[in-house]
From TrEMBL:
Gene Ontology annotations of biological process type: negative regulation of gene expression, epigenetic; primary root development; regulation of abscisic acid-activated signaling pathway; regulation of brassinosteroid mediated signaling pathway; regulation of photoperiodism, flowering; regulation of seedling development; response to abscisic acid; response to temperature stimulus
The family this protein is said to belong to: Belongs to the JARID1 histone demethylase family.
Species of provenance: Oryza nivara
The protein's name in its UniProt record: JmjC domain-containing protein
Domain of life: Eukaryota
Domain JmjC residues, every copy: 142-337
Entry GO MF terms: histone H3K27me2/H3K27me3 demethylase activity
Matches recorded under Gene3D superfamilies: Jelly Rolls (2.60.120.10)
Pfam families, per the entry: Cupin_8 (PF13621)
Coiled-coil positions: none
GO CC annotation: endoplasmic reticulum; nucleus
Amino acid sequence: MERAVRELWAESRDLLGLHSPDDAAAAAADAAMPRAEMPPTPLAFLRDHVSPGRPLLVSSAATSHWPAASLWPTDSYLTDALRSTAVSLHLTPDGRADALAPHPRPSHPGAKCFASAHVRQVDFPTAVRLIRSSDPASGLVAYAQQQDDCLRGEYAAVAGDVDAHVPWASDALGCLPEAVNLWIGSACSQTSFHKDHYDNIYVVVSGEKHFLLLPPTEHHRLYVRDYPAAHYAAEDETELRLKLELEEPERIVPWSSVDPYPPSPEEAAAQASSFPLYFEGPRPIRCTVRAGEMLYLPSMWFHHVSQSPGPNGLTIAVNYWYDMQFDIKYAYFNFLRSLEIDGSSSKKTDALEDDLEETND
């Protein structure tokens, strides 16, 4: 069975024209990512990317007309425009929200849990100050994001600085985006491997986003397993000291076990030993999205995201979520993930996964 699945990995990448380069320098240069210098026509986008489920990186020509392209990277524009606005700030001790963390109970040594951020409403200038001062060494990393159409909600005062939708994508997909979200963070924040039940147009306005991508056919490489849910809570409201608490009643979350950037040689060895399908398989597709560029990320693609700030000390991005089509490809994926390959996956209900598709990007 494992041999057949490995052949599927190779064939699917070949069909999509996404050959993973063996040379490390070529991989670092995003050699496998399809690119367009100008936005595609709706027909070309539908034919070449939406229908086959093939990602696309579009140059900054796609956003050169946005007022946000020149205004948001400045030091003061957003702070002035949102000075009296309360926003949702997500707080973690290490910049890893919606990710695995050590189990908080001493009775479970070596075990992991799924940890969500502590969310606090603060005024926007305070949010920016906390984001810029984020430091895992101090135990506090801040990230402004709220995955509930927040650009048209909390940030409505500046929503007009970007397009309300992506016209060529909306025409190809046959609908308008269900949600448009704003993300503001620093280099300290990253997102663990996950997938979304949305077609995603991801636009960087300031700084850079660094993606690791795996097609849906490579589900088994991420060792999705069940973990108890937990969340960070404020232990000290004044100094914002955070502690991890298990959710009550217990809630189980299926999540990827793989950390592609282990923090130490010891952890790297443990990860490589525990998750060989990932570390010994084909390289993930690497893609850096720079200021002004758009990434089309098809639904169900797994992605890990890290980021680098722009000159203003912030990474700012907007994403457009379009509802995915639950067609035969979704049925194929559900069949594939039901297969047991060397203990790499466990069977999950759709309800559990559907509840957890959106996360920190």
